[in-house]
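Reviewers of the previous submission asked for a worked example of the structure-prediction workflow described in the proposal, so we include one complete record here. The input consisted solely of the amino acid sequence. No template or homolog information was supplied to the procedure at any stage.
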Amino acid sequence: MTTTAPHPDDLRYQAVSSRDARFDGEFFFAVATTGIYCRPSCPAVTPKRVNVRFYPSAAAAQGAGFRACRRCRPDAAPGSAEWNIRADLVGRAVRLIADGVVDREGVAGLAARLGYSARQVHRQLTEELGAGPVALARAQRAHTARVLLQTTDLPVTETAFAAGFASVRQFNDTIREIYAQTPTALRAQVRTGKRPRAAKGTAPAGVPLRLAHRGPYAAREVFDFLERRVITGVEEMTGTVGARVYRRTLRLPYGTGIAEVQEPPAGHVRGGGRGTWLACRLHLTDLRDLANAVQRMRRLFDLDADPDAVAERLGADPRLRPLVAARPGLRSPGAADAEELAVRAVLGQQVSVAAAARLAARLVAAHGTPLPVPDGTLTHVFPEPGVLAEAGLDGPDDPGMPEARRRALRTVAAALADGTVRLDPGADRDDAERRLLALTGVGPWTAGYIRMRALGDPDVFLPGDAGARHGLAALGAGPDAADDWRPWRSYALHHLWSPTLSNPALSNPTLPNHKLLNRTPAAAGE
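From that input alone, the workflow returned the following structure tokens.
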């Protein structure tokens, strides 16, 4: 007797019928009788199976002629966790498109970054996502435009160009096609009162956003992680636990910005059945940077992760299971600026997190780019790699590092500045790590830490890290145990760094950093 496995679309329909928010962003469904597409958790009445169509991306649903649902706003769904894991052409391309590369550099620029022809990129994206790079970028522009229309008083014409459209006509046509409304009607849909008109090209109160994520989110642990690493001048954490606000400056393609993300109160669930979110506000000197700034904050707070998949894998190990149960939704924070993170990793070699933050603050004060107007304690944007590569880093500019680390810092900064090492969202992770390890003063820990945070790799383990070794010992496990935690070893590492397992002095990834294990032969005489 043989059994037939359920068809994938039947399983997707089950997710739709149960309004399962875990699948938001993983796929989209459209209803032939209404012409509308939705996210799986849409609260509307479940349509009949015969009328439902499934699509791998919002752009594919739009390309098939469906318009976005006004209730569940499928364009605002969290991204698929698959793109965090995948290191192939499609995964890298999706991350770059989300970062705005197509809008800034065109499809040719996207293809050049990936090392493939534009035709190959288009073909593979279309095969897997049902839409090419232009359509995927168009869907993102439409979402950015909707956010601007509904959260700012920027004139419609300026909104079009801020969202990345080449013309007002293209903007109007796209909004009508995707939302079945004019831009003016879309704006009026959420108007509840008068707001002061923004000055040309700006939004005085910033752009308020809801950064969606799926499943539980261990906010306290993430905010604790970031608070310990705050760099004066570039970052600050205000408020008390459960009501903190993380603020930081951003260097963006068209200007600078300040991002604010609010810690949700403990036990508070936002969003109901449609998933949950973090409240964010972006202050930008140029609104064309909105989509890019959003993606940076999503990477920093690891908002596209699939915590259920992570918990299922890690919780299968009886040694990790109590930690996973105690901290549901634990994330692996990424980076708001990959090049900044690489510099910070070098500064953190062989010193405590607090000492590394002090070194970074001195570097910022001496070489950072001042903001046009300081905002609270935020005064600078982190120094660009090209500036650090040429900086003296001695005399009055000496941040207080050994000569070997100053050399390593200049070497890494020069490699980032000249493109020898690429850390953009579409970078080849294996190639980037190899190139980092080839640099004088960069060892396995530093390269791995950069890969985990700057490149957002969810499957990095640092066997030479003191916190990891202490955590493994506390569990009664050896280094080989990490092989059972693939492809989520980065999350396992954060569990091993838990204060419940280790002394706070050892639960910190940048504290000891294992002097000998992290050296290259050229740096061994330090």
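The chain has 22 helices and eleven strands. We consider this example representative of the routine output the project will generate in years two and three.
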